[in-house]
Amino acid sequence: QCKFLPRYPFAKPNVESDQSEFAVGTSWEYRCLPGYSKKSFFITCLETSKWSDAQQFCKRKSCMNPRELLHGSVFIPKGIELGSTITYSCNKGYRLIGDSSATCIILDNTVIWDKNMPFCESIPCESPPAISNGDFYSSSGDTFYYGIVVTYHCNVGPNGEKLFDLVGEKSIYCTSEDNQVGVWSSPPPQCIPQVKCPFPEIENGIMETGFKRSFFLNDTVMFKCKPGFTLKGSNIVWCQSNSEWNPPLPTCFRGCLPPPHIHHGNYNKRDKELFTIGQEVSYSCEPGYTLIGTNLVQCTSLGTWSHAAPKCEVKSCAAIPNQLPNGRVVPPPNLQLGAEVSFVCDPG
């Protein structure tokens, strides 16, 4: 015997029955619910005391295939049958207007999507910021949206002469951090009164490149010192918006800059920044290291040191005997400072 009539989410009996037992061989008619294809089918009580399978009879109806989303995409994870959900997303630079998902539902005996298809619009930006003594130009006219570039320029005199310097990013573009609201990539530049730096003259120095009568914003100058003089500071300087040179102008002096530092060693007079001609410096090594080269170097009249800086080499221990009666010696890869040697006795 089979027990009560089975309940299905996709069909119901043509005739309801509250019988608790049905004889083997009994057939019962079911009809598919709205939203499922096929009208009716029969199930039978089998000799196994189970009702025959009804799963294959009622197939879910499908909603219409969604249209392509302009400037976006439709994601269909599990088909378009009744109960399925699809999601929408927009390409970079566009934002979704409408619902981001839709579900296939049944309405008045037909299957339809429960939400209208959204659309993707370009992410807009507000008008670019206005600047004093200048203006901006955009190829898109008065509309500003994702990716649009605007370029700023400073006002000029009646005859086209330059009156202002542009400081900051000349061009800015419309972008977005959350793919919803448009923002400008950086603050606008400024138009400041024309910058003029003082003539870059240094004692005992020569202007190597960049010589002009007047120096304006972002002009660069490269210096070298006259023979017998040493340059202290940067040999290249830029004219900055505050009408000052940056880095500061270098100086040329008779003497030497500090000698080079060496690994595992040092020299005396470390606190001095400049050394006069004839001054000597003495190098020494840390304990466990041997000085290779001359330890004394002298500042010459050319502004260079008389000898190359020495080196500090790690000391080696004396060779150890490789014979150990009734045992063996385990040597290290090298015999430098800090190396360890192991002695092992034979068994017994």
Describe this structure in words.
The chain is mostly beta strands and 348 residues long. The chain has five domains: 59 residues, Complement Module, domain 1 (Ribbon); 51 residues, Complement Module, domain 1; 60 residues, Complement Module, domain 1 (Ribbon); 58 residues, Complement Module, domain 1, CATH 2.10.70; 50 residues, Ribbon (Complement Module, domain 1). Helix content is 0%, strand content 36%. The protein has no helices and 30 strands. The strands form eleven sheets. A four-stranded antiparallel β-sheet has the order 4-5-7-8, with no helix packed on it. The mean pLDDT is 90. This is Complement component receptor 1-like protein.
Short structural summary:
The protein is mainly beta and 348 residues long. The protein contains no helices and 30 strands.
What is the distance, rounded to the nearest whole angstrom, between the alpha carbons of the first and last residues? Answer: 88 Å
Q: Which strand order spans the largest sheet, edge to edge or round the barrel?
A: 4-5-7-8
Quaternary: single chain
Query: Which percent range describes the beta-strand content?
Result: 35-45%
- Give a quick account of the main beta sheet: strands, pairing sense, barrel closure: 4 strands, antiparallel
Order of helical and strand elements? EEEEEEEEEEEEEEEEEEEEEEEEEEEEEE
The portion of residues assigned to helices is under 10%
The CATH superfamily of the largest domain bears the name: Complement Module, domain 1
User: If you compute it from the alpha carbons, what radius of gyration comes out, rounded to the nearest whole angstrom?
Assistant: 44 Å
How many beta strands in the DSSP annotation? Answer: 30
Mean pLDDT: 90
